[in-house]
Records
---
Amino acid sequence: MRKFKFWRLSVGWQILIGLIVGVILGVIFSDNQAFIKLASNVGSTFISLISMVVLPIVISSLIVGIANMGDLHKLGRIGVKTLIYFEILSTIAFIVGIVIANVTDFGSMVDLSKLTKADISTYVKTAEHTHSSIVDVLMSIVPSNIFDALGSGHMLPVVFFSALFGLGLASIGEQGKVVIDFLNAVAATMFKITGWVMHVAPFGVAGLIGQTVAQLGLETLKPLSLFIVMAYITMIFFIFVVLGVTSRLFGFKITEQIAVVKEEIILSFTTASSEVTLPKLIEKSEKLGVSPSISSFVIPTGYTFNLDGSAIYQGLASIFIAQAYGIHLNFSQQLTLLLVLMMTSKGMAGTPGASFVVLLASVGTVGIPTAGIALIAGIDRIVDMARTVVNVIGNVTATLVMAKSENEFDQATHDAYVASVKAKN
């Protein structure tokens, strides 16, 4: 009889086992500082390993994709179309969050006296020193020093430089072929390394979720369980209704997208980081029939501009806090809040703790106490897990939609890959 090996399980099952083990360890070692530190270190190491390969993959894939596209007008058209799509979906996400918070009115059921305020001083400092103007965001796209942009991990300047470099390669013709071949090899190497790194994903997931459970404790979740439930239900609604309808309009099925990226969904949920899924999303998008030039442009850009889960959270949290304080916001005030959130969310994108920073920069404009944000800070990690999943699925949908609209999509490749995934399940 052949001996069973753990590594024969699919990555998705391994990560799921890591999640369960992490929860159990978190419960056993609740509030144990030594365990929390160890688990945090294990989780942080895994995140660092993934972050290590993200930028090389984005740079090499995007430069090659743009070089093969070789058309400045086409790149401009795709860029404008992509940003318009992102803005429409993000606005819908904000509206969905605000409307559901109003309909459920869960905030009015919360007893403020039973809630413990978490320390949000770090977010306050970030909000004070972060520019929220859309002009500032646009100005930050052009890097004065590409190496500084790479070192800081800012995605938009890297995307801008890579797009220009790709166009430059295309313009010099045969001379650029050696560079394109080199970058193709770099991308292939980075994807190979990503596969190796994924072998330690179960341990990283166990560490991250174990740390969260050990720090929070299950008891602290009870007072704000209404907000957690509301957030999860809203995000599930957005995935299957809003993204589902969007997918159907372009001839796709949201259930097939979820089946294809289920491992990335589990990984993003357990780590609460969408960045860890970026390499695999680019790879799988191409297997779904999307051209490399589209996938390597839309997905990295979406990680800044297409954060639907974060938009839902900000809409929900703003109204929830107002309800908890007994503040009634009329239609004009909520419309003002929506417009402010839309602007500040673009300015804060890519900032650590961006969703909290956006709330701090926005809620005060309609009279909601910024101190109220501290009330939900303790459960942010739990909600962050769900909103990260929405961000990931939203970017998969966006990539397919953009590819289909630009005739950069191969239906036969898509159908064959989906069929192979279904056969494995």
Note: The radius of gyration is 22 Å.
---
Amino acid sequence: MATTTKIRPRALVRASGGPRYAVALAVDALGTGLLRPFLLLYGVTVLKLSAPAAGIAMTAGVVVGLVCMPAVGRWLDRGARSTVVAASMLVRVLGVGLLPVTPTGHVWLFATAALFLGIGNQAWPAAHAALVATVAHGRERDAALAAGRALRNAGLGAGALLATACLAGGTTALQALAAVTALAYLTAAALTWSVHVHTHPAAIPDKGKNDGPPPQIRTLLAANVVYAFCLNVPEIALPLVLVTQLHASPMWSAAIFVANTVLVVTLQVPLTVLMSRFSRRTVLALAGMVLTASYLGFLAATSLGRGWSAPAIAMVSLACTLGEILYAGSATALITALAPTHVLGRTLARFQLSTGFGLAVSPAVITTLAPHGPAALWGSLATATLLSASAIATEKTQDTTPGASRLISSAITTD
């Protein structure tokens, strides 16, 4: 199995879509980072909506946004790459652009804005992965996907810090943030459009009726729903436990979130490269084991008492972040390696559906289990994750589709 043992920045940028696309990713992530902390506040503070109404509108936008994924997958399989990524950014411009013109108390326009943002946020991961899979192959592609995630997390973190600093400005600052976010999305879309990456479907042999993903992807999709819960642990589960149950200072939650972001930014690429000596399926199963151990660690930490529980949870969160990094570095890479070339877009769309579903239901599951005690929350997450990791580990499949890299290489067109 080919491995990537060195990190070459120039090659990594080229494998990620080139310098312009890297800048587009950074600008898009910065805009998303600006948006995330203040969208709910915008609905409550500027539009005078009730918190439940604004929250339901945002959740509906995320869930309904998933409905667009089959169409996104078919569009990608017709050869589009950078066009789909740019479209996912442009539709978010529409969403942010609706915010300043939404009258006070008008929940439906706010919900429409959330819907456009949800469509863009759901379409982007699959489109980005398809673009990277088109310009890079093998383990170089894995490293490029990891680099994109690290860059995105850096942009999200920077944007969130800027937004937090501006929130003291009140309504005027929130409206200014909306304008800056729309400009960021528009700039990112223009840069992405200029990359002009697409494939020629005619160059890919007709597979007849075999136009779906390989059968073994069903297990991966089911397991991915459970794995995706780890992405909401630092943002939802840990603050809920620390603040409402252990009555610890909110600073612990903030410190854990910052540490998670810093570790992902600094370790995502090196760890992905380091683990390239193992099969992607093995790394994904290992990620599940690490996440399971971290959930059990959280369970143990909550029994130490108020004085020790918060520091212990913070330490265990480092292991949880390690599991998240291993998961993020192997899951999408495994899906792109397993997918037949002619249905790469639809396969990635199905994968994003499972991720989006996991992210959508995890807040409800976490907040439902937490009141029943640490054993109900962390024991359930540990059991489900361990079963998912075991299902992935016991399946015997190859990490690559024969001839896929060669076929992609013959079909790619860039400028």
Note: Residues 16-199 form a domain with the Growth Hormone; Chain: A; fold (CATH 1.20.1250.20).
---
Amino acid sequence: MKKSKSKSFFQNLIKPFTFNSGKEGQNEEDLEQIAQQEQKHIPFETLVAATKDFHPNHKLGEGGFGPVYKGKLDDGREIAVKKLSHSSNQGKREFQNEAKLLARVQHRNVVHLLGYCAHGMEKLLVYEYVTNESLDKLLFKSNRKEELDWKRRYDIITGVARGLLYLHEDSHNCIIHRDIKASNILLDDKLVPKIADFGMARLFPEDQTHVNTRVAGTNGYMAPEYVMHGHLSKKADVFSFGVVVLELISGQRNSSFNLNADAQSLLDWAYKLYKKGRGLEIMDPALAPSAAPEQVAMCIQIGLLCTQSDPQLRPTMGRVVVMLSKKPGNIEEPSRPGVPGSRYRRSRRPHGFSSTVGSSGDSDSLTSESTFNTNTASASASASISALASPLRSDPHGKRPMQS
């Protein structure tokens, strides 16, 4: 009886999803088989007992889908139960999307879907409980950000990169998350990052460079070509990842960056300082005691490469993981970061210009001012870190945002 209910529930979940490829029927059959083989159906009574009948004291939060509760199974595992609100159309779509896309996803840096439940009108998704909640709660709260020293931030950058590489290249189907941001990165008890909230994620056809879709995401993290034209590709996730990298280094939110500063955004501020050979000045003062200057400089450069205006110039997540796994060294020069609402210009790189990112680039990436790379970083690193060790003061040039 339970197996029959499980099959029926999953069939209903996958009905709304169609693909512009000939593999549609095969995908649905595969997912249905996965649902049966992995036996992910969890009885409603089990979840009632685990959450103390969804007691308000167990409520972790609420999203467009409905409330999320913390629970504990009989075997001792802690869980997070996402309960679909009966009145939420947006939540229904997000709920169905998560159940479908995460059915076969298993990676250390992606939140694990343990199972699902359908009981009358009740529909629930069950995840592993992640102890430290989301990255934004540590990074942007001044009383906790000291917990994130440079090694931990670097490990978070690397972990998120590996999680995205898995979604883009190594999962059963290519998955584009569409909403990578600090609040959708959960941290476990060892501060290992886990990408979460797949309500807006999309399967990506292998034979297409991009798909046109309804724009959905968070301001400050969405790639300009996606915001302007609805062009969605893996490079949209790369852009969002680059924003998170620069947020982790600076301790500043891109979405609420001080607009009175001499920069349009965190990305613009970082790029302008980078071009002047002063990239390390964006570093969070809290990192001063623990920072490895050359590694920080390399990550700033990677963040800027990922947020370039031209999506063809942005590296793949595979390339990012390779760059992060090596010692700091010469990597490509970033061109100007993308700003939603502005157009990017593509031009051919001069013959002999070495790059593994793309075949075209913004001409200003070749100017003499842009030669601040990880090899030159160490020269000014000591002075930069000494300056950052003191309490944050207002920059005489008005370029540093105020401490939140």
Note: Residues 2-128 form a domain with the Phosphorylase Kinase; domain 1 fold (CATH 3.30.200.20).
---
Amino acid sequence: MRYTTVFLAALALLGTSAAGVLAALPDQIDVKVKNLSPEDTIYDRTRQLFYQSNLYKGRIEVYNPKTKSHFNVHIDGYSSNGNGEQQMSGLSLLTHDNSKRLYAVMKNANSFNFGDQSDHGPSSFHSFDLPLSEDSKPVWSVDFQQVQDEFEQKAGKRPFGVVQSAQDRDGNSYVAFALGMPAIARVSADGKTVSTFAWESGHGGQRPGYSGITFDPHTNKLLAFGGPRPLTAFDVSKPHASPEPVHINGDFGSLDGTEKIVTVPVGNDSVLVGARAPNAISFRSWDNWKTANIKMTQRSELKNSGFTAVADYYQGSEQGLYAVSAYFDNGVHGGRSDYPLYKLDSSILNF
């Protein structure tokens, strides 16, 4: 009896240890796709897939980290071999879990070409049903030229350089402009209406607009990252919203280099995580985003990698954060084939 008890205890301990080893998240996830240059990446926890923006080719890359297999989704009339008029800049899911839709933001290829910049080139927004396949086509697509004209008429400046989108509880989408001036366009859930939602005066520099945007379902607030300040909140219950500056408790540092931001569920609350190389910066609020506390973490690999986004990733119940880099220096046809996602210190989710 004594030996049986000891044996069972040892077996239980071994099982626990094995489970712990199996559950450990990898320090690095290697995505090997030639000339991928992912400006954005999101993880579909329900289907256990990464969706990545193939920047220069304007495609959606779908990567399975378990099988290390992938395929891409070509958008007719928009995607290219790498030299097209539009580039894939941002991706978002309708809901964090059990999402039925994926959204893709495409910017004009010359919007961020500061040597030969254009603020009137084509940019677009596309909605896809999930799950995706190689043959998937958009449920609807919209162009931003008309709403840019409306912004220009109302504000006297033309926003351009769309970078990221977010969806509210009703399925409306909000698309952030990073250049010209800080502005956000609103797209109805059926894609039939595109309207001016919010804007404010820029503060000079090459990138005066919002660099990222996300939605917090717990507070029903839209949050923009970067541009005139670290964080700006908006009330989505209104057809047109005024910017609400979020007071930051702590030293945020420079606004230079802010990129995309994502909402990460932590228990019954939300933590926002933004990219500003080489730091990932998290935000947590207890007063409906009037104020926010911050935490930071960094990895040396992100200093010159084109760190643009953070994705939350899961193995079973274990949650992790991963940094996504576009490696812009590789260029359109540079031939790079390895685009690693680096694990971040997930303690920045705990406040």
Note: Helices lie at 2-23, 145-155.
